[in-house]
Amino acid sequence: DLELISDLLGTLAVICVETQRYEEARTYYEELLPYRRLRYGDDSQKTMFVISGLVRALALEGKFDEAGSLADELVEASLRVHGKDHPGTVDYRTDRARLYMEQGKYQAAELELRAAIEGVGSDDPAAIGPMNSLSVCLRFQHRLQESVETSRACLRLCRSVHGDRHVQTYNVQGNLATTLQRLGELDEALELI
User: Fold this and answer.
1) 17, 40, 121, 172: least buried by Cβ within 10 Å?
2) For helices 2-18 and 22-40, what crossing angle results, to 10°?
3) Helices (H), the chain
4) What does each C-alpha distance from 113 to 103, 138, 162, 185 come to in angstroms?
């Protein structure tokens, strides 16, 4: 049955990405995408999942232009179907912003991340990812104090949602510690790690 085969191709693609076989993953996603578009349409969650995977595989191969155009398509579809406050839209916008950062387009990344955070509100758990990415983006732009303020807000939210002993909390703490270290605040940075 075609549905089972398409699900298996999707699973194989995910496994290939996780095992760093990006070209193979891209091939599976590229084979799967026309079927999903034809069967479910461009605005289907099943199609969006494949596009998201293909964006990731292309980015990991360093094919940022191809990944970027698909990321644009994905964000627009998610905004159209789900709206700006949907966690999927927030994730897709964050992924697009990370593509911008990989290319050194920090101002574009910052705008995208701020839009993602604004979509759900800075107190929503879905804002943790884009807030943490925004603090990194600000650090890359040498706006260290803004990066610290964003990381602290993100850390408060992360702790209220996940507690102190969660992988996301540790990631945010590490990001904050890196920025504090660059500011010369070594004692505070050491307390976080």
Assistant:
1) 121
2) 150
3) 2-18, 22-40, 45-60, 64-82, 87-102, 106-120, 128-140, 144-162, 167-182, 186-192
4) 15, 11, 21, 26
The predicted pLDDT at position 25 comes to: 95
- C-alpha 33/C-alpha 130 separation (Å) is 27
User: How crowded is residue 68: how many other Cβ atoms within 10 Å of its Cβ?
Assistant: 19
CB-based contacts of 6, cutoff 8 Å, min separation 6 = 32, 35, 36, 39
pLDDT of residue 105: 96
Q: How many residues in total does the chain contain?
A: 193
Whole-number Å distance between alpha carbons of 30 and 32: 5
Model pTM score: 0.88
Number of C-beta neighbours around residue 66 at 10 A? 15
- Do the Cβ atoms of 128 and 169 come closer than 8 Å? no
With CA atoms as reference, report the closest residue to 154 among 134, 138, 184, 140.
134
The 10s digit of each residue's pLDDT in 122-171 is 999 999 999 999 999 999 999 999 999 999 999 999 999 999 999 999 99
Which residues, 6+ apart, have CB-to-CB distance to 96 below 8 Å?
68, 71, 72, 74, 75, 112
Query: What type of residue sits at position 99?
Result: L
pLDDT given for residue 20 in this prediction: 94
Instruction: Scan for tokens 């964000």, then name that residue.
Output: 75
